[in-house]
Amino acid sequence: MLAGQRRRSLARDSGPNQLAVERRFGYGLRAMGIANAQNLVRGVPVLPRPYGIRVSLRPGDPFAKLLGSDWQKTHWYFTAAERDQKLEDMARKHEYSRIGDQPALVFEKVENLSESRSFA
């Protein structure tokens, strides 16, 4: 590009330049409509997920300096069986762990009683 020249957006071009763009790239720069109305975003029904796994750090874990000593994350599931399977997977010894490594996280089963009683 030469000094003093400015780049022009293809979207701003019109007239003969626009026609050249359409011929070169095989399409016009027009707004696209909705092809399938059923693909519009719609609300997903919220089902109760009363069974959970609370993940927290061990006391004295050095990672607590970054996250805070009260850090925790709770994962919720639809069934107790699904929760138990995920808990087993989370708590397993990782295949890349070194000999003598100990899990740094504490896993605890939790249940939202108000949802689980109405769900059953």
Q: Can you give keywords for this protein?
A:
120 residues, alpha+beta, three-stranded antiparallel β-sheet, 4 helices, 3 strands, 28% helix
Present the secondary structure layout:
Elements: H1 16-25, E1 51-57, H2 64-67, E2 72-77, H3 80-91, E3 105-111, H4 113-119
Antiparallel strand pairs: 1-2, 1-3
Structure, described:
With 120 residues, this protein is of the alpha+beta class. The protein has a domain at 51-94 and 102-119. The chain contains four helices and three strands; from the N terminus they run αβαβαβα. The protein has a three-stranded antiparallel β-sheet with strand order 2-1-3. It is extended, with a radius of gyration of 28 Å.
C-alpha-based Rg, rounded = 28 Å
Task: Give start-end ranges of low-pLDDT stretches.
Answer: none
Number of strands: 3
**Mean pLDDT metric:** 77
Helix coverage percent of residues?
25-40%
Tally of contiguous helical segments: 4
Let me know the largest β-sheet: 3 strands, antiparallel
Q: Strand order within the widest sheet?
A: 2-1-3
Order of SSEs: HEHEHEH
Intertermini distance: 70 Å
Overall shape: extended
How large a portion of the residues is in β-strands, by DSSP E? Answer: 15-25%
